[in-house]
Amino acid sequence: MTNLEKYLSLLEKGSYDGLLLTSPISRKYCAEFNVDEGVAIVTRKGCRYFTDSRYIETAEKNLKGFDVRMVSKDNGYIKQLNQAIEDFEVFTLGFEEDFLTVAEFRSYEGKLNAKLVPCQQDINAFRVVKEEYELQRMREAQAITDKAFTQVCQRIKEGMTEKELCAELIYCLYKNGAEGLSFAPIVVSGPNSSMPHGVPGERKLQKGDFITMDFGVVYKDYCSDMTRTVALGYATEEMKKVYDTVLKAQLTAIGITKAGVTGQAIDGAARKVIADAGYGEYFGHGYGHCLGLLVHESPNCNPSNDKPMPAGCVSSAEPGIYLPGKFGVRIEDCLIIKEDGVEILAHSPKELIIIEA
Asked: 83-118: per-residue pLDDT in tens?
């Protein structure tokens, strides 16, 4: 079944006659090709993709299953959408409420000749369980990430700033085949590593620092995500204890992860290890999130998700301990959740790496 056919199957529910796809992610998933600009309408009687002159040739060549139309100043999106609504006899139109601003919604609601019905949850549901081609792209994205990590570790030097190390990391990611970044890399050191989403700054790397690097790439539209924490020069006994606790927490949770186990239970397994070691109050975020076309997707492995994780989803596994003003440790891999366990996408080492200063 193509992704377009998956979306068409939603119309069998009878809640709406068509789908209005306005988000780049849903348009990309449905059309199985990335066009930066546009709006799509999907109905049983026909599917149209509207874009402007910058992208029309690319869209015409690559969007299978869609009648591609060019918008212009005199023949804009609203006018052409209404023509499609009339041609395809659409009375109710499912829309992506998470991706429309209030102003955009009011414009569509006031000008389109169809009733708008929110359907974000239905549209997103298809992306949870990945097809094999999607998983393979994510494996390839992670391979780029692993290579970059190996190379950037060779570039870490005492006295360089966090910003400089971040620049080296980005260079290594693109050098190894990245087509984009999943997110702005987090590169923090010493006391800054206690901030889970700290921003690289002018702080210079020093002996005895923990350095946390959280990064990922986009490759063939799919994301990777990995975090490693390394020490520069040496690690104190306290640093080693915290690192070992985080690693044990991650391995313990990975050990119980499989389809059918709730996100809450997986999170809880890691959280218990950290709490038992006396660091419970220093692990504030959830253990994991799913990813794919976006680096943060649902479902999540966190305390609030009491639903079973499905086979075929890809989830991060990223416990951490963050001691304010001192240091922090996070170790993150992404996993394909299977019926009987997991496939770990990352192949970078997880034992504590101490880099010579």
From this structure: 999 999 999 999 999 999 999 999 999 999 999 999
Q: What average pLDDT does the structure give for the chain?
A: 97
Residue among 5, 207, 222, 238 at smallest CA distance from 126? 5
Q: Residue 23 CA to chain centroid, in angstroms?
A: 15
CATH of 3-125, one of 3.40.50.2000, 3.40.350.10, 3.40.50.1820, 1.10.287.3510: 3.40.350.10
Q: Provide the β-strand partners of residue 224.
A: none
CATH for 132-355, among 3.40.50.2300, 1.10.1130.10, 3.40.50.720, 3.90.230.10? 3.90.230.10
Contact (CB, 8 A) for 42 and 23? no
Cα–Cα nearest to 294, from 85, 97, 89, 141: 141
Q: SS3 for 286?
A: coil
Q: How far, in Å, CA of 237 to CA of 325, rounded?
A: 17
| Amino acid, res. 147 | K
* Contact between 75 and 54 (Cβ < 8 Å): no
Q: Is 15 left (phi over 0), alpha (psi -120 to 50) or beta?
A: alpha
Quick one: which of 38, 44, 31, 39 has its CA closest to 91? 44
How many whole angstroms separate alpha carbon 238 and alpha carbon 244? 10
CB distance 273 to 251 below 8 Å: no
CA distances from 138 to 76, 107, 200 (A): 37, 37, 26
- Contact between 205 and 158 under an 8 Å Cβ cutoff? The reply is yes
Query: Which distant-in-sequence residues (6+ apart) come within 8 Å of 168 by Cβ?
Result: 152, 155
pTM across the whole model: 0.94
The pLDDT assigned to 14 comes to 87
- Beta partners for residue 40, in sequence order: 21, 49
In this prediction, residue 159 carries a pLDDT of 98
One-character DSSP codes across 37-57: S-EEEEETTEEEEEE-TTTHH
From 278, 279, 277, 256, select the one nearest 267 (Cα to Cα): 256
Burial class of residue 337 in the structure, from the number of CB atoms within 10 Å of its CB (0-12 exposed, 13-18 middle, 19+ buried) = buried
